Amino acid sequence: MPELSVVVVNYNTRDATAACLRSVLQTAATVDLELIVVDNGSSDGSVPAFRAGFPGVVAIEAGENLGFARGVNLGARAASGTWLLLLNPDTIVLPGSLRALLDFAAAHPEFGMFGGRTLRPDGSVDPSSCWGAPSLWSLTMFATMLSTTFKRSPFFDPESLGAWNRDSVREVPIITGCLLLVRRADFERLGGMDEDYFLYGEDAEFSLRAGRAGMRRVVVPDAVIVHEVGGSSDAGGEKGCMVMAGKVTHLRKTWTPVRAAIGVRLLVAGVGIRAALETVTRRSRAPWSTVWRRRADWRRGYPAAEATLFGRVPATA
Predict the structure, then answer these.
(1) Superfamily for 4-133+159-227?
(2) Distance between CA atoms of 238 and 160, rounded to whole angstroms?
(3) pLDDT (0 to 100) of residue 283
(4) Contact 33, 5 (CB under 8 A)
(5) What is the pLDDT of residues 58-105, one digit of tens each?
(6) Mean pLDDT across the stretch 19-34?
(7) Is the per-residue pLDDT at 166 higher than 50?
(8) Are 60 and 39 in contact (CB under 8 A)?
(9) Pfam families, from UniProt (predicted)?
(10) How far is Cα 225 from Cα 246, in angstroms, rounded to an integer?
(11) CA atoms within 13 A on the CB side of 175
């Protein structure tokens, strides 16, 4: 049984995923691991390239775009390691990071889920490796634009976790799926990722569900990756629609109906204000205007948004 199973979900990111796999193999010489790539129906020759370039990789062909949650679960079912690591295809693992993550986990069994520190390609800190939990207060701050005006303020932008640079060990509510380590037995006990989600939001739900099950989540700053954010999805307004669909899904599935309805209205209001500002300032790039224009496509959340945003009939339909 290997110590670690690394699961990467690939969708038309052949070169980036190959670089990710290479970085894992080059920087984890002391880790007994297996590499599992789930290919979501790519058309760029990904699977032949992975099998030729990485003979030891387990390449699973899903045959279609299953989305992130279903892809992760498919990879996890094929895993045999003690630990399961979810890793984005648009990441590069820095030397010593996987060993540091595993050693910390072994030394601190009081925690059940582990994340790390992510950097952007220019070397600056990417805070999206972890987040605070959404609340009516944080959504009100989004709706009034105070979370943007006072970005990374613990009071006005609480989901950002303040100005903390992810450079110290800290317990957090949400660890994102770009770098998430969990015992495989715990992943299975939790039932894996919620497959109602298609893309974005499933990792937040999974982390908070783990918390309700008594699992503490922690960031390990010595585990560092470089993350090209959004490598498998289009940037700008289209990605914003996907993110909003994930947020709405989380509210509708985990909050009471009345609280969720208020939360969704706050999200819509925040998008509308940002779109209006883009119109007034005549910005050449106006992603929020796209999100506002397509609000009917995402405001019901998944699985409905799987059809409206991706043109795919949900598997549960």
Answers:
(1) Spore Coat Polysaccharide Biosynthesis Protein SpsA; Chain A (3.90.550.10)
(2) 22
(3) 84
(4) yes
(5) 999 999 999 999 999 999 999 999 999 999 999 999 999 999 999 999
(6) 95
(7) yes
(8) yes
(9) Glyco_transf_7C, Glycos_transf_2
(10) 24
(11) 29
